[in-house]
Amino acid sequence: MVKRRVATLIAVLVTSSLATSGPTPRAAAAEPEAGSSPPSAGSSPVPGIDLDTVTIPELQTRMAGGSLTSSALTRAYLQRIKAVNPRINAVLRTDPTALRQAAASDARHRRGDTLGPLDGIPVLLKDNVDTHDMPTTAGSLALAGSPPDTDATLVTRLREAGAVILGKTNLSEWANFRATKPTSGWSAVGGQTHNPYVLDRNPCGSSSGSAAALAASLSQVAIGTETDGSIVCPAGMNGVVGHKPSLGLVSGAGVVPISAEQDTAGPMARNVTDAALTLSVLSGGDTGRHEDATRALAEVAKHPGGLRGKRIGLWRLPSLGAEVDAVMTRTAAKLRKAGAEVVEVTPPYQNRLAELEFPALLSEFHRDIDAYLATRKGPRNLAELIEFNRTHPAEHTCFAGQELFEQALAAPPTTDPKYRAMRAELKDLSQRSIDETLAAHHLDAIAAPTNPPAWTTDCARGDNDVIPSSTPAAVAGYPSLSVPAGAVGELPVGLLLTAGNHQDAELLALGAAVEHRLDAWRAPRYLPSLGSGDSR
To answer: How many Å separate Cα 397 from the centre of its chain?
Structure first.
């Protein structure tokens, strides 16, 4: 029954994507200066397909008609990785079985027996998602030996849906939960990932490689993970789409953890339609709510140009700077012109959330990382992991610290009454911050800047990433979605949309409409630097 519903929705999405009201028409990839940039994705070896702009429904239409094979598509992405990845260092490894997986999908397409919207579609996985046949390291040399024994549940779902597992992406080591001043996009296993728009700028973290790979058109979709900001910030800073699902919609089994109270994997893509289709495969997690994702497909398929009558609350966040605020002002004007009502809001309780979140995460990380490490060869608990880092100099080649590990080791256990009170207050205030704001202003969603312009990567200084917009949804377990909003010069800025609990379908539909109206995506130019005159 689910397969029949999804097949029907794919047909609707295909029709929608070819209509004038369909997904956002993309600008053509800018031609690079001779010798300065990798080849344009538009020069794909697949005739008639621009990898920058093509959507999954368009690909499935071609595969169904016999003018495209998954093998040709997979080979094109592997060639892109070979040509472009040396510049950005986003993909850690490719799966040696990718072309065999694609050939199996081609056979299903010839028989008319496809498995759903991702059958034959290449997918990259963040390297904290377990795969039994490839290393899963979380960026750490401590896990660089034998692969896990089993796939993560979400990987099983992707395989059962016929997706081509293309490879693994780099990430901020331990999902940016190791040092007080980390450098996003760096790991001891993978080195530093670079922002494709300006190569000396940071990709944000921790799903750095997934976002940068999508910006460079190295895969059709990718999987990221988030505890607070780790899907949406990289999406915003690399000019792509990132969806943090409602907590429990996607299973966390087999994903290297920080906190079961906040962690979730989610889809990343170059358009909202592809993100929704990927969610339909990933869903059915710890709460079994697959119907949320199939409803999301139906919502996204409904004329995504329509914003008339929608009410959106704009949370400006002036701390991110005047240039980002100017992007938000232009964004609000475009949404109003499309018929949306945009009102200014400030969600409450943010200072208290900032006080409570980090101490709670320390306790949860100790509990959850111990449980995960017990399933792997190598350090068996957090104490052994700390000792491993102390005795392996390669773990200190960018930033030396592991202060968060040490603080987590000393943190109160999650059975402690003070911890329990803290997490209860966090859940209550974070949910109220969203629910009360939505209700008071009769909103469909809250909008805010996802990210500042990308800062210069500097191991000595670390990140410059105090970005509060992701926190309410992350702590509450509510969905959020980043879509491209514009840019400050060459550097992308995303618009983060947040909705109520398990409103993923409505949020994705609204995001498709916003994406269509803003039409903000531009291909990266792989500039080496913006020069010394740039202030950021």
So the answer is: 26
Residue 4 pLDDT > 90: no
d(CA 102, CA 436): 48
Residue 448 bridge partners (DSSP): 496
Helix, strand or coil, per DSSP, at residue 344: strand
The rounded distance, in Å, linking the Cα atoms of 331 and 520 is 10
Q: Kindly name the residue from 17, 208, 230, 433 that is annotated as catalytic.
A: 230
Q: pLDDT tens digits for 178-189?
A: 999 999 999 999
CA within 13 Å, CB half, 495: 35
What does the alpha-carbon distance between residue 91 and residue 166 come to, in Å, rounded to a whole number? Answer: 10
Burial 491-520, CB ≥16 within 10 A → b, else e: bbbbbbbbbbebbbbbbbbbbbbbbbbbeb
Per-residue tokens: 181:
């001043």
- Confidence grade of residue 37 (pLDDT, cut at 50, 70, 90): low
At 464-488, the pLDDT tens digits run: 878 999 999 999 999 999 999 999 9
Residues with Cβ < 8 Å from 467, sequence gap 6 or more?
229, 233, 320, 450, 451, 452
Mean pLDDT computed over 55-84: 97
pLDDT given for residue 290 in this prediction: 52
What is the DSSP code (8-state) at residue 485?
Answer: E
445: phi then psi, degrees, rounded to nearest 5 = -165, 160
Let me know if 36 is a catalytic residue. no
With a CB cutoff of 8 Å and minimum separation 6, the contacts of 155 are 125, 129, 130, 131, 165, 254
Bond from prior residue into 319 cis (ω within 30 degrees of 0): no
Which residue among 37, 206, 430, 482 is the active-site one?
206
Q: Is 126 a catalytic residue?
A: yes
DSSP letter at 486 equals E
Which residues fall within 8 angstroms of residue 211, CB to CB, at 6 or more apart? 203, 204, 222, 224, 234, 235, 237, 238, 240, 242, 268
User: Given 126, 168, 310, 334, which residue is catalytic?
Assistant: 126
Please give the DSSP secondary-structure letter assigned to residue 279. H
Whether the Cβ atoms of residue 469 and residue 236 lie closer than 8 Å to each other:
no
CB 158 within 8 A of CB 165: yes
Q: Where are the beta strands (DSSP E) in 228-288?
A: 241-244, 264-269
Beta bridge partners of 14: none
| Residue 230 annotated in active site | yes
Looking up tokens 């079961």 gives: 260
Name the β-bridge partners of 255: 129
Residue 278 has pLDDT above 60, yes or no: yes
What does the DSSP assignment read for 163-232? -EEEEEE--SGGGG-S-SS--TTEETTTEE---SSBTTB---SSSHHHHHHHHTTSSSEEEEEESSSTTH
What is the pLDDT at residue 291?
59
Q: Supply the DSSP symbol for 142.
A: G
Residue 152 tokens, joined: 């993560």
Comparing 25-39, 45-59, 415-429, the range with the smallest average pLDDT is: 25-39
462: nearest Cα among 401, 532, 420: 401
Q: Which CATH number fits domain 2-17+41-518: 3.90.1300.10, 3.40.1190.10, 3.40.1110.10, 3.40.50.170?
A: 3.90.1300.10
